[in-house]
Amino acid sequence: MADSTQPTTAVAAANPYNPYQDLDAPIKKLYYLPTSPEHLYPEKAPKPYRPFGENLVSCTGICYLSGRTAGIVHGGVRGLNAAGAGEPRRVRMSRALSSGGELGRRYSNAMGIVGLYFSVIEGWINCYRGKDGILNTGVAGFGAGVV
């Protein structure tokens, strides 16, 4: 019967790891961690860039949330500055929240569209060139700004 604490030939180059090493447990090496990256789908491992759908969702989502945050902050400040000196606190907060919601909606939609343009252009360039790089990102940013 083989010892389960000894590495097999496939993981012989793995790093031995014991999560209980500070507790002076009698087990010397409990796990063998791999030294190379592991991929959930091995057929996607050799790709030098992110898949188009992943890039589309992440770029659009990041731009949308950035626009929403910037719009809420800008609208809230604008709403607080527009409030009169004698207005009650409830009215001032209501004005700030309404203004923040309105500008947040505008900014998030605009930035989400820019992120969508950017990710589509970058996906086309990645597909054309076959690799990812700073040139792709720069051209995609320029293209999204032009559109």
From TrEMBL:
Q: How does it sit in the membrane?
A: Multi-pass membrane protein
Q: Which InterPro entries match?
A: Tim23-like
Q: Which GO terms describe its molecular function?
A: protein transmembrane transporter activity
User: Is RNA-binding tagged as a keyword?
Assistant: no
Q: Which GO terms describe its biological process?
A: protein import into mitochondrial matrix
Q: Which UniProt keywords apply?
A: Membrane, Transmembrane, Transmembrane helix
One GO CC annotation, please? TIM23 mitochondrial import inner membrane translocase complex
Q: Which domain of life is it from?
A: Eukaryota
Intracellular or extracellular location(s): Membrane
Protein name per its UniProtKB record: Mitochondrial inner membrane translocase subunit Tim17/Tim22/Tim23/peroxisomal protein PMP24
User: What organism does the record attribute this protein to?
Assistant: Rosa chinensis (China rose)
